[in-house]
Amino acid sequence: MLSATWKTGLVFFPAFDWAISPTHPEREERLLYTQDQVLEEGLLDIEGIVELKPDLATLEDIRRVHFCHPDERSVVTESHLISAGGALKIGTEVLEGNIHRGFALVRPPGHHAMRVVHGARGFCNINIEAIMIERLRESYGIDRVAIVDTDCHHGDGTQNIYWHDPDTLFISIHQDGRTLYPGSGFTDEMGGPAALGMTVNIPLPPRTSEEGFLYVLEKAIVPILDDFHPQLIVNSAGQDNHYSDPITNMSFSAQGYAEFTRRLQPHIAVLEGGYSIEGALPYVNVGIILALAGMDFRMVREPDYSPERIRQSRDTSQYIQKVVEVVMESWSSASRVRALNRDKGGFAERDLRIFYDTSGILEAQSETLRVCASCSGALRIDSRTDQGSRILAVHIPRKACSLCREQGYAWFDSGKGGKYNSIYLQDRTEDRYFVKRK
Amino acid sequence: MIIGLDVGGTHTDAVLVGKDGILRSAKVTTNPDRLFESVWGALEEVLGDMAPERMVRVVLSTTLTTNAIAEGKLQRAGMIVSSGPGVDPEFYRTGPDYFTVSGSIDHRGREVQPVDRLEIEAISSRLHSQGIRCIGVVGKFSVRNPAHELQICELLDHSFDYVVPGHRLSGNLSFPRRIATAYLNASVYTVHRQFFEAVRESLKIKGLVVPIYVLKADGGTMSLETSLANPGQSILSGPAASVMGSLPFASREEETLVLDIGGTTTDMAVLIRGTPLLDPLGIEIGGYKTLIRSLKTRSIGLGGDSCVRVVQGKLTLGPDRKGPAMAHGGPAPTPTDALFVLGKIQDGNVDAAKAGIESIAQALGVSPLEAARRIFDQACESILETAARMIGEINDKPVYTVHEVLEGHTVKPTEILVLGGPAPHFAQRLVTLTDFRVRIVPNWQVANAAGAALARPTSEVTLFVDTERGIALAPEEGFSQSVKRDFGMDAARELALRLLQRKHRREGSCDVEPEMEVIEQSQFNMVRQFHTSGRNIRVKVQVKPGILTDYGGFSQRG
Predict the structure, then answer these.
(1) CATH at residue B95
(2) Of A73, A293, A351, B431, which has the maximum CB count within 10 A?
(3) Do A12 and B400 count as a contact with CB atoms less than 8 A apart?
(4) Segments of chain A with pLDDT less than 50
(5) Considering only CB atoms, which chain B residues are within 8 Å of A282?
């Protein structure tokens, strides 16, 4: 009988009654053919593959990660709660030991959602991976987590959320930001001063194919993961690197995705983008599921698959080698710089401009981090939008020292209602969330 | 009058039902090796001297096909499987006569690779020379486009007894299940045909020339002729007979747990406001997962005659049956013997029962009375635990829309209906062990046979429409039609219901206006380059399982 080597859980939530707009890529039809393929292949009947029902994420789960303005209900729909709940279900089952690995095949996606949420960016409202990870940290006490984002678009939301967190390694491989939304994710984006190096960006040139992706995996991702020793590896499994994707320019394939997954061995995969809904998703997802389960996927291929036709050029290969060299140099030197920064202390500031393409909002942020030798540091965000709202958001990290905690509360208390529509405090040491409104 | 007959693991039950209820019943011991004799014996007994011309139909639920599969006595059948890319079809090999061939269809039903004519002809002559008579032909996504399966069937030698294309057996997706379903149909075809032709002949000799119906696993009936094309539907009809027998007595407002406590097994099912719950996928039997439509039932190897043992100081019941209870001359102690010791049954050899329970009591180090109590309680508790697990699984079934997640209905039965030989004794104890309302099905010993007698025909049709490709397809019906861009959900529903009515009549229903319902419908706009290019519609309609209502005497609530 056909059986899985690794017990694998699947949450399948195609949200057949939710769309951004009727003709938007993120629409009801997106996972229809994937569902047909998964059902026709009989994957859910395989011994050791179990289909699980998604949980419903709660507002508390969102408040552990985001500052939603004006509140969670205004920026989140039920389908986001189910989508995040799908990831949560997989994470919980993995940590309970009921499954070895899991895949949340859910929509809507989440990796463009940042810490502050005024609306939707890149089809995303809330970051479903971060919501899952923070709940798992809260409930199961896990600490070191690695996120490998293989969506074709830079995972700028996840990067933003974990920018200052030295316990979360965020690796994103994506099509070079000079050629694709959201236009970020260059090798010099390496994380804040106290978490320098824990953000790893690997931008790849258009038309990178299987060879390039697997090269990056072998020469950069695997060695970095080996150094980091994560307790949990999460894959933001976007499928828009596919050669047939209508909104990107890469040359990845179902075989490539499956092989990549087999070698990466993530505990948890969460579906992100992927808009070649007929030509790619049905085959890529079957490949990923079989690879997660430790099964033979050699016969999974697209009807029009031709390795010769999508092979990358020699120039592309050489370019990728150079990118990997830069990444590995930065990785090996980052820990020294990070230690120096933390010893020096003080306050670090940065300004960000964030565009919400889906909601049409422009946000300006001023961020202040208390750089701390004993924890990752309290964070203050002053955010205003072109829609006229202004908020103050204070984040006290999970393992904050008493001084950073005091700093966080001082920022929250001194925030004057007159200037801000709302003032938020996220105290992760006690898993509490406070809001002061005008 | 109608004759209903149900073959069980221990007994074969038959009833004669008239307008006023059960007129006669019979119970004979099942001899699995000579099934025809058991069936014929029960039929003769129940028919007695009744005039044959007063009979309007005979409905049979047998274990013929079920046992053939469970005991691995399947006839050799050839399988021709065209897969295309995906999971390696070698994993689904059914035996040595399994051939994977070229040809491939994608998820939209578009041809990716054509069938190779020479390849099929070679396989055909090879199967023929091996003496194989029955063949299943299965393609991946054949329910989206049956052309390849039909082409292969056409290319096969026309002298085979039975050639079944997978798309005619179910409209549901699942290539591996389609393979298993076609294989089981092909490999029980001959035994099923021979058995029912013998029944028909014997009845004819007795002067009974009436329509013969076969009970299906979904609690419906089909004509004997239909069953010859689709014998797999008779697999696991036993539990369905009991469920149908309990149906008239179930609450119309609440949810019901049905327990059929037999000699060898206890079968359980759930009724939602008097309608049995169907399995969303299909029968699983003997390691085969199929697309055969079925009631959602669960069976455990625990009944009145289950063998009682003490293993490492712990009491175990079943899953095997060594024979009848010791009180009835059997070789090993059983829960029925415990009922004798507890004084609940008297009509048997009480001393033999006591001796059996005594041995268990000694091994447990308790009094015989205490041992009997424990055996009986453990039997009741195991049954309830299994039922709770089944209900949990029903409620854990994933759903795919926001609406379903938020409005999700939770199945929570409030009453138990018990039938089967020891029903009254178990019912008494279940009352004290649960919060459920517990009731006994009237005529509990033969209610299963009555269920077979009164079951109405059921049918299902799955319609798939893709307006971009311009097709409407009902694979089970072998129906296809071209449609225009403006073909919508209303038209799809109407077409599906029309096809269902046609199928229902053909399969032996006399209902002028069968009670049809839409069980699934979804519609997706297909968008290409930011423009709506077509609609993808899926509709599933059925005539749900039900009981003939003009035999009112039976269905009076007990």
Answers:
(1) 3.40.1360
(2) A293
(3) yes
(4) none
(5) 107
Is there a single domain that holds both residue B181 and residue B197? Answer: no
B401 has pLDDT over 80? no
- Token output for A15: 């949200």
Where residue B48 falls (left for φ over 0; alpha for ψ -120 to 50; beta otherwise) is left
pLDDT score, position B558 = 36
Residues of A in contact with B534 (CB under 8 A): none
Looking at beta carbons, which residues of chain B come within 8 Å of A302?
85
All CATH 3.40.800.20 domain ranges in chain A, comma separated: 3-328
Q: Are residues B67 and B210 in the same domain?
A: yes
Are the Cβ atoms of A14 and B175 closer than 8 angstroms? no
Q: With contacts defined as CB-CB under 8 Å, which chain A residues touch B86?
A: 37, 40-41, 286, 299-300
Cβ pair A12:B403 closer than 8 A: no
Is the predicted pLDDT of residue B556 greater than 50, yes or no?
A: no
Range of the domain at B273: 251-442
Nearest to A16 among B144, B401, B532 (CB): B401
Nearest Cα residue in chain A from B143 = A40
Are A23 and B531 within 8 A, CB to CB?
yes
Statement to judge: residues B340 and B484 lie in one domain: no
Cα(A254)–Cα(A210) distance, integer angstroms: 9
For A3-328, which CATH class?
A: alpha beta
- The pTM assigned to this predicted structure is 0.93
Q: How far is CA B166 from the centre of its chain?
A: 19
Nearest CA of chain A to the CA of B294: how many Å?
17
DSSP A17: T
| Co-location of B49 and B165 in the same domain | no
Residue B454 included in any domain = no
Q: Are B472 and B191 in contact (CB under 8 A)?
A: no
Residue ending a domain, choose from B152, B167, B185: B185
Q: B interface mutation test: which of A11, A30, A40, A289 has the most B CBs within 10 A? A: A40
Indicate whether B557 belongs to any domain: no
- Chain A touched by B316 (CB under 8 Å): no
- Residue B146 domain flag: yes
Question: Do residue B61 and residue B202 come from a single domain?
Answer: yes
| Single-letter code of the amino acid located at B137 | V
Note the pLDDT of residue A22. Answer: 82
* Cβ–Cβ below 8 Å for B87 and A45: no
- Residues B91 and B63 both lie in one domain: no
Same domain, B32 and B96: no
**Domain shared by B390 and B255, yes or no:** yes
Give the whole-angstrom CA distance, residue B354 versus residue A264.
Answer: 64
Per-residue burial over B56-76, b = 16 or more CB atoms within 10 Å of its CB, e = otherwise: ebbbbbbbbbbbbbeeeebeb
CB contact under 8 A, A78 and B406: yes
Paired tokens of A168 = 């979360």
What tokens were used for B472?
């409407």
Handedness of CA B244, B246, B252, B256 (dihedral sign): negative
> Looking at this predicted complex, what is its ipTM?
0.93
Question: Does the annotation count A164 as an active-site position?
Answer: no
pLDDT of residue A417: 65
pLDDT-derived band at B78 (thresholds 50, 70, 90) equals very high
Beta carbons within 10 angstroms of residue A21's beta carbon: 9
Contacts of A12 in chain B (CB under 8 A): 398, 400
* Residue pLDDT, tens place only, B121-162: 999 999 999 999 999 999 999 999 999 999 999 999 899 999
Distance CA(B103)–CA(B101), nearest Å, equals: 7
What residue type is B398 in one-letter code? P
pLDDT beyond 60 at B557: no
Q: How many domains does chain B have?
A: 4
Name the residue among B87, B88, B402 with its Cβ closest to that of A78.
Answer: B402
**Is B396 close to A53, i.e. CB distance below 8 A?**
yes
Does any domain span residue B556? Answer: no
Looking at A236-240, B8-12, B349-353, B378-382, which range is the least confident one? B8-12
